[in-house]
Amino acid sequence: AKRVYAFEEGRADMKELLGGKGAGLAAMTAAGVPVPPGFTVTTEACRDYALSGGMLEEPLWAEIREALAVLEERGGQRLGDRADPLLVSVRSGAVVSMPGMMDTILNLGLNDETAEGLAAITGDERFAYDCYRRLIAMFGQVVLGVEGWRFERLLEARKEAAGAETDQQLSADDWRELALAYQQLVLRHAGRPFPQDVLEQLRLAVEAVFRSWDNPRARVYRSVNRIDGASGTAVTVQRMVFGNKGADCGTGVVFTRDPSTGEPGLYGEFLLNAQGEDVVAGVRTPQPIASLAEALPHAHAELDRWGRTLEERYGDMQDIEFTIERGRLFLLQTRTGKRGAQAALRIAVDLVREGRIAREEAVRRVELAHLEQLLHRGIDESAAAETLAKGLPASPGAAIGRAVFDADTAERWSRDGQPVILVRPETTPDDIHGVLAAEGILTSRGGMTSHAAVVARGMGKPAVCGCEALEVDAEAKRLAVRGSGAEAIAEGDWLTIDGGTGRVIAGRMPLREPAVTEELLQVLRWADELRLLEVHANADTPEDARAARRLGAQGIGLCRTEHMFFAPERLVVMQRMIAAETDEAREAALAELRPMQQADFEGLLEAMDGLPVTIRLLDPPLHEFLPGREELQRKLEAAAGAERAELEALLRRSDALREANPMLGQRGCRLGIMHPEIYRMQAEALCLAAAACAERGVDVRAEIMIPLVGEAAELGLLRAEVEAVAERLLPEALRRERPIRVGTMIEVPRAALTARRIAEHADFFSFGTNDLTQMTYGCSRDDAEGKFLARYVERKLLPFNPFQVLDEEGVGQLIRIATEAGRAARPGLKAGICGEHGGERDSIFFCHEIGLDYVSCSPYRIPMARIAAAQAAL
Ligand code: ADP
Ligand code: MG
Ligand code: MG
């Protein structure tokens, strides 16, 4: 098979074969974009290379030589030609973009002779030797494994000797000597010389790029981003263009829209008189792209024009690398730009409005992680706090953590449960595990397109970059504000950063709730038009209900009434009710609880006016409302008289109620059956609340949900009791128009298996997937999560924690069986889930797939659930 493609031979849809970069270069070439010519070796060749145990086989090498010959022919320059040498870059390019994770070598083709030739033909010795020393350093690192800091140290020493502050101030002789010193360095540390044979350079470089697919940082990046390990990298060989030839040259990176806000128009950075990675590496802090319009207006206009063309072709915001050689613009890479959460929504909405994409596509493109970030918090600006410094708002969201100054510490502390902010002068791909572990990232150097910024945005991590007011001393583990007497921040000190504004504050700051933007609302409206699943909320209080409704809840899918009894003033009444030894005493306590419960329900019904409110009757075992035995005993010792008698009664009850396995004990409907007066009180409170609300003009849609049913007769009995109450307390008209519907939770496997009979008594099913998961696995969540479950997942005995992601194979099957059986008995039976899975993407997809009517989740997950439900439907 063909394994080398000239740019002219490739196509945009050949990403699998040519990698993202190769396919992009081919597509740009086809579109007439000014791209230096070159060719790409396929990912397949990379896989062959790995399979052959790291041998670049002759036929492939011959193919490469052939493509090189064509390249030489076209440009009239030859690799290794002493008079006018062709120089190339050898670039990595995986199928899925992995910015900076693999290796690239620039200026290949220089040796002692061609460097001389380049100097002669360009008349610029300084330039020639700048290129040469760069090649030796890159080649030394990438191919021969010499550490980068060794080269840097030599460079610093050279600068010091020359009395130079910046690279720019070094002379041709400085670079020449550095090139020599670098060669000696390579020989010393790699045990072999930097190759003077340019074909050997090329061959070794191609092999090294192949190998870079498997370097540790690339592997970490892939595992974090779940990129399949088998595909390999393509290798692009491309004629060099030079941004380091003088003041009318430069290099940079632009986005076609602002990657933080999404605002249309070029956004990015460049450096005059610089080459390649200078911008990304954060060596010098670059200038904003707008100033290119002043420095080189023609190139800026061209860049803008091609940016638009590429955006049009790809239907999305692009991230473009460019180089300007003597005023002429060349594009070197284009790819879909990574963006922050806010920008992602803004861009998607704008593209729909500009007619470039359909609203389905906009919804499909929403990344749920982004949404989460957007719904994350920022620093509360009203809280008075001295800003320590302000950097670039590189990735939005606020983060609080302890300052750490290296990736390993970040990882270790975070594993120990300490939130950390990773503080670095700049990050490199080797820091990736630290970035991953940190709550947020702070760098003192580098721009919006620096490594730290790009990676943080991709991960949805808050980041403040290029905060030059800060002096970060990674070795001494401290950071200080330049030129200020203010106390330095040391390792372990608290820091708050806001990647949305760029603020850095010492200490821990209060955070503000997220703002729901117009774009988010628009995307949510589109999602609502596209989804089939309804999204309800798990809410126990009117405040929660109102918040849920604002976030788009279509009802309350689960109100856990036990939460209403844990307030201190109610708990005592509840305890009195539980301890009551006579019917009268119990009735008296219940009579006290009833109006409280009624008020709760009224609040909920009012908040959800017109939407269903599902009230689950008391579920936990009664002893959960009682103080612990030891506490009781202690109180008893100190008490006397009536109080003592009361405590004694409580203790007796507590002993009587104790269970060996409370999770499997007298709870849920079992409680309702053993203590009918409790459920009766709750049903009465709901009927009275419904009547009172209806009186006030509220559109009441109340539902009662019976928990933990395992046998149809249980539900039959309890339903009859609820209906009797309704008969008694619900006004006739209301009973006709808005009857209180009675349904059940399916959370015991037996209920799922006998769903057909249960459905005869149920107006709806709500799968309580937390309990259903516990009971299906026969494992208690509280005991499992802290202990063996994590180990199970680590050892791949389970693919994931089933309490987070619904287990489709087991629990899901029960849900499927029960839904089908229930609907067979009662066509149109409403069914949904109300466990924590209701707010989890994969579980939502599953619910959609099996045709449930709704998911119910905690209020703040609702926007996410709305989008996920729409994506499931697309
Ligand atoms: P990465 O995938 O890490 O971005 P690239 O292959 O894109 O690596 O190259 C790194 C840098 O070198 C980029 O700034 C790129 O624009 C520059 N570069 C690559 N090839 C050339 C070339 N032929 N001429 C000039 N600059 C180049
Ligand atoms: Mg690149
Ligand atoms: Mg339950």
UniProtKB/TrEMBL annotation:
Q: What SUPFAM superfamilies does the record point to?
A: Glutathione synthetase ATP-binding domain-like, Phosphoenolpyruvate/pyruvate domain, Phosphohistidine domain
Keywords attached to this Swiss-Prot or TrEMBL record, sorted alphabetically, are: ATP-binding, Kinase, Magnesium, Metal-binding, Nucleotide-binding, Pyruvate, Transferase
Which residues of this protein are catalytic? Answer: H451 (tele-phosphohistidine intermediate), C834 (proton donor)
GO terms for MF: ATP binding; kinase activity; metal ion binding; pyruvate, phosphate dikinase activity
What is the residue range of the signal peptide feature? none
Where would I find the PEP-utilising enzyme mobile domain in this sequence? 418-502
Reaction(s) this enzyme catalyzes, per UniProt? pyruvate + phosphate + ATP = phosphoenolpyruvate + AMP + diphosphate + H(+)
What region holds the Pyruvate phosphate dikinase AMP/ATP-binding domain? Answer: 56-289, 301-347
Annotated positions binding Mg(2+) = E747, D771
Superkingdom assignment:
Bacteria
Cofactor(s) the protein needs: Mg(2+)
Sites where the protein binds substrate: R560, R616, E747, G768, T769, N770, D771
Where does the PEP-utilising enzyme C-terminal domain start and stop, copy by copy? 520-872
Give the Enzyme Commission number: 2.7.9.1
UniProt xrefs under InterPro entries = ATP_grasp_subdomain_1, PEP-util_enz_mobile_dom, PEP_util_AS, PEP_util_C, PEP_util_CS, Phosphohistidine_dom_sf, PPDK_AMP/ATP-bd, Pyruvate_phosphate_dikinase
Q: Which family does it belong to?
A: Belongs to the PEP-utilizing enzyme family.
Know the name of this protein? Pyruvate, phosphate dikinase
